[in-house]
Amino acid sequence: MNDTTNDPLLAIARTPDNSKRNRLLLLALIAVAILLAGWLAWPRSNGTNNGSYLTEEAVLGDLSVTVSATGNLYPTNQVDVGSELSGIVESVLVDENDLVKRGQVLVRLDLSKLNDQVVKSQAAVLAAQAQVAQMQATVKESRATLARLRQVAELTGGKVPSRSELEAAEAAVTRAEANEANARAAAAQASASLRSDQTNLSKASIRSPIDGIVLTRKIESGQTVAASLQAPVLFTIAEDLSRMQLQVDVDEADVSQVKNGQQAYFMVDAWPGRKYPAEISRVGFGAQTTDGVVTYKTILNVSNADLSLRPGMTATAEISTANLHDALLVPNAALRFTPSAGKSSSSSGFVASLMPRRPQQPKQAKENTSASSSSRTLWVLQDNKPTPVEVSIGLSDGRRTQIVSGGLQAGARVIIGTQKSAK
């Protein structure tokens, strides 16, 4: 075994002063390594080289602003055909998709009761007319009796008949005339009842009120129709499917841009890729609220000459609210870009770069707070440096925005973002 107790080097290392010195040296080396790593990771300056800015040209072009809305297709005139009478359906003469003419019979109800009621009413009319004739005869008889008594009184100088007999004869005439009037009124009432029964008989044959096509049929032969509370719907008929209406719901944020006469196009799932032209005919003032969203019903006129569109189809419409030509346009990303603030590392030391700094508010944010909503600051790349340009903006299609006024010229390279340089 070697004796190490007399080794001078180990003796020096074990001394308390050397151990303390080694720990301090180790801590110093660690601190230098941390500072060196931070210095290498710290950006040299707030500026960026030529390849760090993403730019696009401000160009003159056309801008089309549209409003999107969804809705459903409906016929221009749709009628629900019902029945005013209750009864058993005897026959159904049309089916869905059948073309019908105005006045064409669609359904016939059982006529047995109605025919009996008409016969009964006709008999009541005849009885009333006979009563009128009887009352007319009574009036004639009463008038003849009164005339004879007056003649006798004239011949006898008023001695015969007595005054009471003459008054009774006059009263009989008045009574007979009143009875005749009552009989005539009863005859008129019987005639009116007969006409009502004949009308009901005609209504038992339910007819189409318009020229059109049967969309739905809700009745079958032998079914009982109960119209005591409300008229049941038997058929739904569309007048003319070559002209239709598209009813869409326009959001409250877009309704101020939508007006009568504006052109639009829409698409349906049944014919993908096909665009149907349309024109706005009415923008509703009444609001509709669905799931907390306020919309306004807007109606567009649609041509459907080839009958490719059907009622109830869901459509997505694009309403053209503005069309600009030769407008100065910039990408929307340029309106959101703001260069980072700070100083170059060349003007500050390494130690100063490690010190905490108070955060600075971007200049763009301050300017936009005080400026109007149409005023913006764009950053243009000039001499490889971002330069601010004050502009006023106009319409936007969601991708590009119109520049109405300001110092921006066509062809200028507006900055839309930055990218990290390759290491």
Helix vs. strand class: alpha+beta
Q: Choose one word for the global shape.
A: elongated
Largest sheet: 6 strands, antiparallel, barrel
Write out the strand line-up for the largest beta sheet, numbering strands in chain order. 2-11-14-13-12-15
Helix count, per DSSP? 7
In N-to-C order, the SSE pattern is HHEEEEEEHHEEEEEEEEEHHHEEEE
How large, in whole angstroms, is the Cα Rg? 50 Å
**Alpha-carbon distance between the two ends:** 58 Å
What do the pLDDT scores average to?
84
Descriptive notes:
The longest helix has 44 residues, at 112-155. This protein has 423 residues and is α+β, with helices and mostly antiparallel strands. It has a six-stranded antiparallel beta barrel with strand order 2-11-14-13-12-15. It has a four-stranded antiparallel beta sheet with strand order 3-10-8-5, with no helix packed on it. A four-stranded antiparallel beta sheet has the order 7-6-4-9. It is built from seven helices and 19 strands. Mean pLDDT is 84; it is low at 1-5, 8-13, 43-50 and 342-372. Helix 3 (112-155) runs antiparallel to helix 4.
